[in-house]
Amino acid sequence: MKLHITFFVLLLLSAANGGKILVWHTDGSHWINMKPVLETLVDRGHQVTVLVPSTSMFMNSSEPSRFRYEPFNVSVSMEFKKKFIEEFLLFSIYEVNHMSYLQIYNKFIGFIRTNMDYFLKFLHRVVKSETIMKKLKKGNYDVLFADPIYPGSDLAADMLGIPLVFSLRFSLAHNWERMCGQLPAPPSFVPGIMSKLTDKMDFSERLWNVLFYALQDVVMRNLMWRELDKYYSEVKGTPTSACELMGKADIWLMRTYWDFDFPRPLLPNFKFVGGIHCKPAKPLPEEMEKFVQSSGDAGIVVFSLGSMVKNLTTEKANMIASALAQLPQKVLWRYSGEKPKGLGSNTRIYDWIPQNDLLGHPKTKAFITHGGTNGIYEAIYHGVPMVGIPMFGDQPDNMVHMEAKGAAVTAKLKFMTNESLRDAVNTVINDKSYKENVMRLSRIHHDRPMSPRDEAVFWIEFTMRNKGAKHLRVQAHKLTWYQYHSLDVLAFLLIIDLLLIFILFKSCSFCFKRCCSRKKTKRKAE
Amino acid sequence: MKLHITFFVLLLLSAANGGKILVWHTDGSHWINMKPVLETLVDRGHQVTVLVPSTSMFMNSSEPSRFRYEPFNVSVSMEFKKKFIEEFLLFSIYEVNHMSYLQIYNKFIGFIRTNMDYFLKFLHRVVKSETIMKKLKKGNYDVLFADPIYPGSDLAADMLGIPLVFSLRFSLAHNWERMCGQLPAPPSFVPGIMSKLTDKMDFSERLWNVLFYALQDVVMRNLMWRELDKYYSEVKGTPTSACELMGKADIWLMRTYWDFDFPRPLLPNFKFVGGIHCKPAKPLPEEMEKFVQSSGDAGIVVFSLGSMVKNLTTEKANMIASALAQLPQKVLWRYSGEKPKGLGSNTRIYDWIPQNDLLGHPKTKAFITHGGTNGIYEAIYHGVPMVGIPMFGDQPDNMVHMEAKGAAVTAKLKFMTNESLRDAVNTVINDKSYKENVMRLSRIHHDRPMSPRDEAVFWIEFTMRNKGAKHLRVQAHKLTWYQYHSLDVLAFLLIIDLLLIFILFKSCSFCFKRCCSRKKTKRKAE
Fold this sequence. Notes:
Rossmann fold, 50% helix
C-alpha cells in the first residue's frame, strides 16, 4: 500500500514540468468555481492564460494575479450587461409572480434570445479576430479549459487543434450532456434540472419529466443550436454541428456529486467533482469573531442571498428583519440595501461576509441561503443545515435536492411571512434530523478517493499528458438517435416477424383452401 | 494541494482500526484475483475471514495464512469437480469443433445445469447449516465481500444483515449487471461479453448483439434465476427474487478498465478496477535468468495457456513446438504434458513459470496466452504485445478486445498451423504498432487517480465505515422495466394524441355534415 501511496504522491507532484492551459472566458459564480482549480494548476507549475473580455463583472485583466491574461474587446457595454442582469433578476424574483404562463414563456424566450445574441458577440471577437487567434495559436496551449455556459470554446479548441476540458454545473434538462455528451439520462429516475423533481417520481411526475425534457430540447434546438450551427458553419466554411463539436470535449468535469445530486448513470469521461471551491475555514476578522462569540450557546445564523442579489424590496427586507429579530441566535446578514426597519439587536448587516469561514465556525447553527450551488456546497462541506430562499435559475431546484435529502427547509419569497421564516430557521436548528442529515452529506462529501479539486486537476493534467482522453469516449457519438436506441434493429425484427406471420397465414389459408376444394370435388364426385 | 495529499494519505492509513471482512468462497482465477485485495486489507489492520468449502482447487483452509478460515463441508467430491472441469475443457477446446449448433447448445445447457446444481449444493451447506450461520452471525462482520460467480452471497448478506461488496469480471451478456445491478448497456455500442463484438458495430453486428442479449437473458432466466428464486424463497420462507437481492449489493467492483474494455455507461456504485493483481516484476530464479539473458538482442517469448489447461493433444503440442523452434527468440513455455516432438533448443518447458516476473522482464518481446483476463492484464501492465490462443469461456472475446486495440494477434487452435503461429509471433514483435499500442494501453492502465487495488480497498472500507453505500444506488431499482423506459408514459401520451385526433376528426366531420345538410336544405328550399 505504501508503494501505491508513494506512486500516487509522485504522480501528483510529477506534472510540475509545466503545461500550458488556456482558459475560456466566463463570469459570476462560474469564475468563482474555476479559480481554485486554476490556482492549484499554477501551484503545480503550469502556465495558466485566461481569455478576458473587456466587459466582465468578475474577471479583471488589470488586477495583479498569478494568471496570465489575454484580453479581448467586446462590442457589449458594461451598462448593457448590468441592465440585462437587473432586468432578469427583477423578472425572476418579482414579475414572474404576477404573469400568465404565456407571458412568462415569452419573456423567458426574449431573455434567452438576448443572451444568445450577446454570447455570439463575445465569441465573434475571439474566433473572428485574426490578432487574437494568431496569439492563441502561437501560445501552443496543451488544453482549453472552459465552462460551456459561455459558448464557442469547442469551436476555438477545434480551430486551435487542442484538447478540450469542460467544467459544467448543468445545462437545461441536461440537454448538452445528453444530446452532445451522450450522457444517459432516463427521465424515469433522472429528474431534469430546474424541473423541481427528485429521483423518486410517481406516474404524473415521470410524465411531467418526460414533457420537461422534450420541451427544453425544443427550446434549445430553436434558440441555441440553430443559431450556433449557423455561426459555426459560417466560421468554419463548412456545414458544422455545434452539438457535435461540443461532444468532442475530452473530459466533462461536472460540478456536483452524490452528496448534492441524485445518483444517475454516467460515462467514463464524466467526472463528478462537486465542491471544487470548498476549503477549511480561516479565522474571522476580530470584530466579527467577537460578535459571533457573544451569541453564547444559542450560536449564530449566517444569511446571504449570493453575489447577484444585492437588494430586496423595502417590504421584503423589513419582513425578513423582523423575522430574524425573533431568533435567539445572532445573525450575520450580507445585505447592501438600506437598513430595514425592525432590525433586531441580534442582527448585523454586512456588505460582504467571509461566508466559508463563517459556515465553518463551530458556533454556526444554520445558513439562510438563496440556494446557489457554491453556497450549498460550502454548507455541505461544513455540515450546516439550511433554510433556502431561492430566487432564480437553478436555485429552487437546488433547494428541492437539499429538502429531499432532509438537510434544508425552503421558504418561498413570494409567500414568506416573518413567522414562516422564523419557524423555518427554528426547525432546521431544533429538529436534530436536519443536522444529522447534513452531517451525513458532509461525510459523503469528504469520504471519497480524492478531493474534488485534486480530481479536476488530475483529469486536466491527464488530458495534457495524453493529448486528449479518447479512450474514455463512448462509440455512441458515432450513432444516430435511432441507432443508439436500436430502433432500426427492432424495426427489422418486427418486419421479419410480420413477414413470417404473413407467410404462415398464407400457407395455412392455402392448405385450408386445398383441403376444402378437395372435399368439394370429392362431394361433387359422390 | 499538499494539504489534500496529506488528507488523502491520512485517510488511506486511518482505517487501521480494524474492520471484520467475511469473504465468500470462490475458486480458480477468481480467487487469484481476490487475494491481493485481501492481503492489502490485512496489511491495513482488518480481520479477513474466508469461507472455504471442503472441495476446492485453489483454496486451502489448512495452509498457513494471514487470513482466518471458516471451512464448511460440501457434498460434492473433488473427483466430481475435476471430472466436470476436464469434460468442460474437452468440450470447449476440441469437441465443439465437430458439433452442430444444436449439439453445442444442448451440451452447453447441460453444463450450466450441472454447474447450477453443484453451486446450490455448496450454498445449501452454508445458509442451511445452523452451525455455520450461527458462527457467521456471531462473527459480527462489517461487510461480505464476494465474487458472485459462486451464487448465494447476496442471500447470506441479507440473512446476516450486513453490507455486500461484489468483485466481478462479467456475467453472460452483462445479465446480472444489467438486470439486477441496473447498469445501462445499450446493445448498439456495448457488445455483449462473449459475443466477440467490439464497440464499433455495423447493422448486422448490432442485430446480432441485440439477439445475443435476448438469448442470454432467456438462458439465464430459465437456467439460473428460476432455480435461485425457488431456492431463495424456500430458505427465506417468503417469495424472494434472487436478482432483486443481488441488486442490493452496495458496490460492484468490476475487474476491467478502459485499457482492456470498451468505454460504456456506468453507475456511481460500479467501480472499474481491472488489474487488481498486477504488480512490479521480481527478479527471476538464477537458472531462468541465465536462460533469458542467453537470448541476446532477440529477447524472449513467454508462453502459457493458464492454470486450467495443463495438456494439449500430442498433435497440437508437436505443431506448436515446431513453430516455436523457428523463432529467433528464446521461449519459456509453461506446459505439463509429455515433451513434444520437434522441440527447438530455443524452447524450455516448465511446470510453472513466474509469469508476472517474466512479463516484466526487459528482454520479453511477446506473450503467447490463452487470453484469460489476469494474464492479459499483466501483459498490459508491463506493456507486452500478445498472441492469443483462446480456449474457452471469455477468452476468445478477451482476445477480440486486444485485437481491436491493436495490441494482439489471435491464432485459433483449430486452424493453427506451425507457420501461422510462427508468423503471428513474428508480427507482434516486428510490426512496431503492436508494441506502441500495448504501451498506450499500459499508460492508460497506470495513469489513473488511484491504483485499482487501492480503489477496491477504498470502496470496501467505505462500505464498512458507512454501513453500506446507499447514496450511490440509483432509484431505477424501484422501477419496473416499462417504467424504467418510460413506456407507460409514452403509451399515455400516445392515447392522449389519438384521442385528440379522434375528437378533431369527429368535430370536423360534424361540421362538414352540418354544412352539407344546410346547403341541401337551402337547395331544397330554392
